[in-house]
C-alpha cells in the first residue's frame, strides 16, 4: 500500500515488469531465488522515484532522451535494503539502469558485469514504459532491437523477442495459478519472504519512514525528529514505557499519508489555494488508513489521524476537543510544530528555537494541551539538538533507548 500511494498508477506497470520478468527468467532456467528477486525487483525497482521531480518521472524521456535522475536507483536500493531477505533485490534495483555498453548509471557497469536479473528488469521497464506512450508496439520492439548490445543484453533481447512472438506474455490481466505452477511455483512460493529475521513492525516503520523522507525534500528527517522530540516530551510527562512506544511509532508515521499527495503540492513555495489546502488536510486520514493495515499498529493509527486536532476543537479532521484528543496525538502536535518551525520549508528558511518556543507558548490552551506545552518548555534546546543529531545514525528500534539513556544522564 505504501508503494501504491507513493507511485500511484505506475504500480500496475511495475507489476507487469515483475510478472513478465519472472516469465523470461524461467525461460532462461534461472533458479527460484533469482525468480523471486526478479519479482520483487520488478515491483519495487522505481520506489526511489518518490523523491524525484514530477517532470523527471516520465519513463519515455529516460530511455529516448537519457535524462533520468540517477539518484532514484540508489535511493530505491537503500529503501529496499531495510527489508530482510531482499538483499539480492537491492543490487537489481541499484543496477537496473546500467547499460550493456557501460554508459548507464550509477556505477557504469557493462556487459556481463550487470546481473542478468537487473538486465531483465531494465528490458521490461523500458518495454512497458514506452508501450504506455507509443500506440504501435512494433515501434517499441524495433527500438529494443536497435538498443540490443547498446543498452540491453543481446541474449535477453533475443529471448524476449521469442516470447513476444508466442504472444503469451504474462500480465496482471491474464496471470493465474496455472502459469505459476507451470514453472513449479505457486503464487505463495514466489511472493513469500522466507526466513525473515527481526521485528516486522520495525521493518515496516523503517521502510515507511524512508519513503516519506524521499517523497518531500523539505521533510527529510522530519518524522524521525518528531519521534525524538515526542519521546523527550513523554519522558518529561512521566508517560509509561508502553504508551511512550505508541507515541514514538505514531510520531514516526504521522505524515505517512503524504506519500499519497503530489510532490508539486508538498513543495509548493507560494500560498496554497483553498482546494490545495483541503487536499493537504487529507493526509492524517490517509496516514490512519495506511497504519491500520498493520494489525500490531492498530493503537497507533488514531495518533496519526488526530495530530492536527486543536485543543480548542478547531482542528481537523474530526474537530475533537481537549481530552477527546488522544494524549499521544497532543504530544505529537507540539513536536511536529516545533520541527516545522525550526526546519527549512519551501516558503521560508528555518526559524530559531526561541521563536518556536514563543509560538508554542502563545498557542497553549488553543492549539496545544497546556500540560504538553509545559513539559516541552522544560526541555532545553541543547537536549533537543543532541536528540536530533543522534537519530540519523540510529535504527528505529534503538532511538528510544538512546534518547532515554542520554536524557537520564
Number of helical elements = 23
CATH homology superfamily name of the largest domain: Hypothetical protein af1432
Could you give a short account of the major beta sheet? Answer: none
Contiguous uncertain segments of 5+ residues? 52-68, 193-198
Q: Report mean pLDDT, rounded to a whole number.
A: 81
Range of helix content: 55-70%
Q: What gap, in angstroms, lies between the N and C termini?
A: 41 Å
Radius of gyration: 24 Å
CATH architecture of the largest domain: Orthogonal Bundle
Q: What proportion strand? A: under 5%
Please provide the count of β strands.
Answer: 0
Q: What form results from the Cα inertia axes?
A: elongated
Total individual domains: 2
Helix-strand string:
HHHHHHHHHHHHHHHHHHHHHHH
For this structure, what is the CATH class of the largest domain?
A: Mainly Alpha
CATH topology of the largest domain: Hypothetical protein af1432
Protein structure class? mainly alpha
General description of the model:
The protein has 409 residues and is mostly helical. The protein has 2 domains: 2-191, Orthogonal Bundle (Hypothetical protein af1432), CATH 1.10.3210.10; 200-408, Hypothetical protein af1432 (Orthogonal Bundle). It is built from 23 helices and no strands. The protein has helices spanning 2-7, 10-27, 32-44, 59-64, 71-80, 87-94, 116-131, 137-146, 154-166, 177-182, 187-191, 200-215, 222-236, 241-253, 263-266, 274-280, 283-291, 301-305, 327-342, 353-362, 370-377, 381-391, 396-408. The two termini are 41 Å apart. Residues 52-68 and 193-198 have low confidence and may be disordered.
